Amino acid sequence: MHAIGTIYTPYLTKQDCPIQPQYATNAAGRVELLAQYAEGLKDIETFSHIYLLYLFDRSGEIILARPTFLDETPHGIYASRHPCRPNNIGLSIVRLLGRDGSALMVEGVDMLNETPLLDIKPYIPQYDAIPDANPGWTAQVPWRQKPEGRE
């Protein structure tokens, strides 16, 4: 895989970065595709939300079972959204505010500034929202509250 663009955000350090888009609802960002991929954005502005797949290029040491930002109990990396992963792939759903050529203005960014972009996919509620999905171990965590010390 290779980067198809760059995500620009207000977050310069991991400590400043929200842990999920839910905690960054007003955080504005800009997604800039490389010129050779701009044609792939045709009709993207018809969607209200998009998935951004990106590289956790500054994530840190990979530990396969570790505490998360939600609690101190170790969980397997594939049962969490911790950024320190073997393939360092991040996924966020952001609100699409507009398009200017090969650039997208978005809201709800939760990644570091100048994060390499791997892909963009439209969020389609008919396919992507699963009302009866089980939240797993996170059902025991008051996840709707902002984690302490985090934006």
TrEMBL record:
**Database matches in Gene3D superfamilies:** YaeB-like
Task: Extract one GO molecular function annotation from the record.
Answer: methyltransferase activity
A biological process (GO) annotation for this entry?
methylation
Q: Which NCBIfam families match?
A: tRNA_TsaA
What PANTHER family does the record tag this protein with?
A: TRNA (ADENINE(37)-N6)-METHYLTRANSFERASE
Q: Which UniProt keywords apply?
A: Methyltransferase, S-adenosyl-L-methionine, Transferase
Organism source for this protein? Trichlorobacter thiogenes
What are the residue boundaries of the TsaA-like domain, all occurrences included?
1-132
Question: What is the residue range of the signal peptide feature?
Answer: none
Whether Methyltransferase counts among this entry's keywords is yes
Taxonomy, superkingdom: Bacteria
Query: What name is this protein filed under?
Result: tRNA-Thr(GGU) m(6)t(6)A37 methyltransferase TsaA
Q: Which family does it belong to?
A: Belongs to the tRNA methyltransferase O family.
